[in-house]
Amino acid sequence: MNSPDLSNAGKIRSFSRRQGRITAGQQQALTDFWDKYGLEPGIECRFSEIFGREAPVIVEIGFGNGDSLADMAEANPDCDYIGIEVHRPGVGHLIMQLEARELSNVRIFCHDAVEILARSIPDQSLAGVHLFFPDPWPKKRHHKRRIVKPAFINLITTKLAQGGYFHCATDWENYAEHMLAVLSNAPDLDNAEAGGGFSERPSYRPLTKFENRGLRLGHGVWDLIFRKN
């Protein structure tokens, strides 16, 4: 496949730099335990050295407050996870969770996911990539800021090992349709859903509080899982 075009990787942001209020506990976790769980931009990840073992590695992009990532890591101790999130309060909250649960199979980047994927994650090294409920940028004039676009999917594909998967989910139907169109046109990915549409939520993806509330209100959620062929 063609190498991904990274010329605009840092020019169009798919997120806004709203840091929000960081609590004393989150800041303390960052201060006390960043060296234990944090990874610095610019490094080239050697997963066996980072985690001290050989295991499937899954990247989650934009993990929010990290509760779901901590749940997955706890439920799947045979996998290792790299979380990428730009908002420090969420990073601090996840570190608090990891320390409280004594989880050793998660490491964190607090940086732009596109740059981390391009510069720190080795090609053909990942068992999976998760992108759950990214900013939908619902206004039409902002659609160009959506992270799911052909260049991004090309980058993801170069990082997946053969048979590795990309799993995204959204509660915006218009964005779900956009994701399906982009992914269906990716030459090196196959839809895991035999009918070519959306997938049922797999058991490994926890329901978030936000998602549960939306489901009670009748809001839809759409999952897409594609595998590298």
In terms of DSSP E residues, the strand content is 15-25%
In CATH, the topology of the domain at 112-228 is named Rossmann fold
For the record, the CATH architecture of the domain at 112-228 stands as: 3-Layer(aba) Sandwich
Could you tell me the mean pLDDT? 90
Unreliable segments of 5+ consecutive residues: 1-12
State the end-to-end CA separation.
Answer: 12 Å
Strand arrangement across the biggest beta sheet: 1-4-3-2-5-6-8-7
The string of secondary-structure elements, in order, is HEHEHEHEHEHEHEHE
CATH class of the domain at 112-228: Alpha Beta
Count of DSSP-assigned helices = 8
Q: What is the makeup of the main sheet?
A: 8 strands, mixed
- Helicity, in percent? 25-40%
Report the principal-axis shape. Answer: globular
Taking all Cα atoms into account, the compactness measure Rg is 17 Å
Query: So, the CATH homologous superfamily of the domain at 112-228?
Result: Vaccinia Virus protein VP39
What is the number of strand segments?
8
Structural class: alpha/beta
Can you walk me through this structure?
This is tRNA (guanine-N(7)-)-methyltransferase. Belongs to the class I-like SAM-binding methyltransferase superfamily. TrmB family. The protein is α/β, with parallel strands linked by helices. The protein has a domain at 112-228: Vaccinia Virus protein VP39 (Rossmann fold, 3-Layer(aba) Sandwich). Helices cover 35% and strands 19% of the residues. It has 8 helices and 8 strands. Strands 1-4-3-2-5-6-8-7 form an 8-stranded mixed beta sheet. Helix 6 links the parallel strand 5 and strand 6 (160-170). The model is unreliable at 1-12 (pLDDT under 50).
